[in-house]
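Ticket #4471: complex job returned nothing on first submit. Input attached below:
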Amino acid sequence: MHNILEEFARTNRLREVSPALKLFIGLASILVSVSSPGPVAPLLVAAAMSAAVLVLAKIPARFYARLLLIPASFAVMSIAVILFITGGGAVLVEVPGLPLAITADGANLALLLLARVFGGMCSLYFIALTTPTTEIFEILRRLRVPTVLIDLAMLTYRFIFILIEEAGQIYRSQVMRLGYSRFRESVQSFGMLAGALFIRTWESGEALVLAMDARCYDGKLGIPGKTRPLSLSALAAALLYIGAIFGISLSTGGLVLL
Amino acid sequence: MHIMEGFLPSPWWQIWFIVSLPFIVIGLYQLNKLVREKREALPLLAVAGAFVFVLSSLKLPSFNGSCSHPTGTGLGGILFGPCIAAVLGLIVLVFQAVFLAHGGITTLGANVFSMGIAGPLVAYLIYKAGTRAGANTYATVFLAAALADLTTYVVTSVQLALAFPGSVGFFGAFTAFAAIFAVTQVPLAIIEGAIIALVFKYIVQL
Amino acid sequence: MTPLLETDNVTYTYPNGPAALAGVSVRIEAGSKTAIVGPNGAGKSTLLLMLNGMLRPESGEIRFSGRPLAYDNRSLRELRRRVGFVFQNPDVQIIAPTVEADVAFGPVNLGHPPDAVRQAVHDALGYVGLRGYEKRPPHRLSGGEKKRVAIAGILAMEPSVLVFDEPTNTLDPASSEEVMELLDELASGGRTVLVSTHDVELAYRWADSIVLMEQGSVLARGPPEEIFSDHGLLASARLKPPALLDLYNELNLRGVIDRDVPPKSVLEFTDRIERAMHGRAPARSETGRIYLCDADLTGGDDLRRLVEQGAVDHVGAMGTRAKEFAGRERVLLDYTYGVIDKCILKALIGENSLIITTGGMVEHVRRRIGEYSAESGLTLAATPVGETAGHRPRREGAFE
Amino acid sequence: MTPLLETDNVTYTYPNGPAALAGVSVRIEAGSKTAIVGPNGAGKSTLLLMLNGMLRPESGEIRFSGRPLAYDNRSLRELRRRVGFVFQNPDVQIIAPTVEADVAFGPVNLGHPPDAVRQAVHDALGYVGLRGYEKRPPHRLSGGEKKRVAIAGILAMEPSVLVFDEPTNTLDPASSEEVMELLDELASGGRTVLVSTHDVELAYRWADSIVLMEQGSVLARGPPEEIFSDHGLLASARLKPPALLDLYNELNLRGVIDRDVPPKSVLEFTDRIERAMHGRAPARSETGRIYLCDADLTGGDDLRRLVEQGAVDHVGAMGTRAKEFAGRERVLLDYTYGVIDKCILKALIGENSLIITTGGMVEHVRRRIGEYSAESGLTLAATPVGETAGHRPRREGAFE
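Support reply: We reran it on our side without changes. The output follows.
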């Protein structure tokens, strides 16, 4: 079972900082990373976001390191493709016997992409690890996102945790009865798990309708929550940081390392 | 198969948001109407979304990465229509991004299109065609699920090839991306097809 | 007097199942504490679901305040506002992603303005002792806390009848006690409380009226001592008598103890056995004192002074607000359940004790001690602890 | 003697949570009936999950038959086959579409051939008294039946240790009794049975050894009378003493009853009070007879003759097979729980009774009656009912 990042968002040391500010910092960092023409700014973003997560929010370093591995397989495969299909510039490496070569342009593009992914993912982790989703719902509400979308998301959120708990228990009970031992049994066991979970989901849905009816459901969910105070110094620091990385991103635009 | 944060450059990530937007807007409009008429639709959609999320967060046998389960939303498509399924897909993908670090924010548009729209649409069409032709139900379900997975993977490869044609052009790049992802995605599609067929069988037995 | 809620020969059958209710007639008096007792599958939940219109009887009639239920949308909403239903499993009842948003669900859907909603949430959370939990997600709460959130969600709608389906199922003893105390508080505040349970011990201690059900029918109705003394009746409902009552009946059968109203607590039982052995409850040189403190009125200083002076040997608190208060004032609690009886027991052996409680429960404590004095012929009285006038006006007034 | 299962200073912390186990050392003897008692969140389930390798201790060691657990795949499979685990909620354990398929899940995964699987399923369902339920879908069963299917699913793997997490939670009294009786049968058949519970009454009656836990630590270990008499200990584990024990201690405190081993049942308690009042248990003119019938050996005719002749006033059955047998022979049962004690009580007032049971429980009944005779100085004995030799050889032998 995966670690749900949300669990850390409830307990981290940046919990009390205004969620709007955290969201703003995270999203701005992502945008700077994605649009940066050179690898320096995204790498700085990655460093800054990681520092915020590790030093300010006090997320355990080992857990964070494992998180960084999640996108690795996708990144390695797709960046490898780009490395080989992008021509131009000097040839750096040639694969003997095959028409494959790595050129300077390819290497530069691969490096830039790696930097952007790194910067983007670290910014995403910053949001995910410091800002509880329930507070993001309130921001979305204030941003006039359609109510029906937020309501659906809120109900889904609640049931994700109920079903994850049940899926975990079913999985454990299968393992105790020696399920998942060989490949064939694994597929069988997984099918049973999914089927049982589907039934449980269906029952939960019916129970939820009943529970909502019992409480006079009239198409409304939630209350306008109170906003957390926004400290001016925090806002100033955030603006300074974003201005800085944006400036670096512009000024290092043409920089290529190879 | 999720494209991760930071991978799609401008203008491609914006383009995929624009491509997905009409489906989402229509979906929201339909959803609003549906909820007004049948209030219990909302909780049922919510548990369906949670189900898809939880299924995708479980490890498939023999695979470390999670899979996208477009067929889960495909089920939503069969019940509520493809546009509402796209809304469901959007929600699930946002939660996958912030809970599991699968996918991202800027790549959300592209991922919604491949996993929330294209995949479920294929599942929906095959299921409809199969039941109309009176084919074996399990075979139909297997095909719908497996091909939905494959569609998602093909669309993702197209998205990447469009963004990074390299010096070999779109078709060359597409071939390269498709080939390398085939290593994991083709067996994954077959396993998912088998599992969804098993689930179907399980439910029918009850 | 018209009962508050009444069912008249109600029947119900679930689709492709046997009859769940086969002609059930019950009367729930306003302000009563009623327990519907029976094994699983007896039709208890089905009956409860009828009372707020979640199920509609196939035949028969249900009346609220003398008027038959109507099943149009508007009447149903009105009914459900007045008859609050707490589900057995809080996980199916808690809807929203935070405690606060969940408790607000009812008031928001009733169309209350935001300020009134916030006030209702604040009051309800205070009442169940969960203030400070507003932003928590339900999946991080313990079972007992979830249950209290579920109760707060119903209280926030200010119903006059509260219906609990198996309120203590799956809870551990401490959480069960907390929930049962909450039920006592609600009842002493004038609400009608209805509980379904298969826990005979609980029903015996808590309820003032029992409806015994089995296989969709009512087997018997009456006061707990009567219903639970009838072994045959209980056996046909596949239940066991409460342990103390069982022992009493066995002693009775052997002529060891005199036939009388059966004892409901360890305290009463002890007295009865002593009386049987010595002809009367033995005179003791001196009884201890029972101090009574209303947490809403007493200042923390008065309380701490009493405890620190060593005037009391044992401290007990009843109700969540009282326990909160004790926690805030750092007073260690010896008793958190069955408090009154324990303090009387201690008084009988000459030790002093202090009971901290709130609201309607204060009067309840006085009454209970008075009753015991009258019965036993001993002079016991509750000594109020210095009530500093005007201290900390409370907002919970809405619920008293 | 090496204990069968042993944990040595085991610690565990869930990711991002407080310590769930803070150095736990327990010893589970082979053949014992152990109850791990504590409030919710005390770490009971975490400890149990360690015993079959589902969780791995952070530090400390777990030994099975003296050897430290290994955590490679093969050793884990072997361990899980020997240490069967029954979940609290049968809904997460029974997931196959039919009862039969679910019970077969374990044996199939063990790689048994189809015939052996069928036999194991047949035997296990017979043992829990659910033969005939093979094709039913589990979600249409009652709570008690689901629980028994879950137990059958584990029994089919023939483990030597059975671990039950909160076995009676959410069950009604009748189903609870059935499950506890099944646990007794399993234990009397030589298996080691381990139970986690917050139900003190249950643990007091059932277990021969208690491990009291709170906040991830073991507070105390010992026989139930000892652990549950210590009010302070129980209070620190947020539990209540069993009602009878509480009454006994209160009487003891007032000097009404003599200090001795506390009584465990209504029967013992009644005797003790009588002895306290009359100096001894009163001599009765004549005691009734207790007939004892082994359902596996006695023919139905012998049984019916006895009942129809009016030789017995009360009939009780212990265990699912015995109840099945009585049902088949159309003998009406008066007692289905606490059978031995009830029959002794009846014998004391001169009435005859019949106990139907099976397997290892027969010996258990004899022992219990013998013990009571020795203690009370009365001559009570179990009269065996005509055992037709060679009657109906049973296949359940595998489980005895």
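Chain D is about 40% helix and 20% strand. Closing as resolved unless it happens again.
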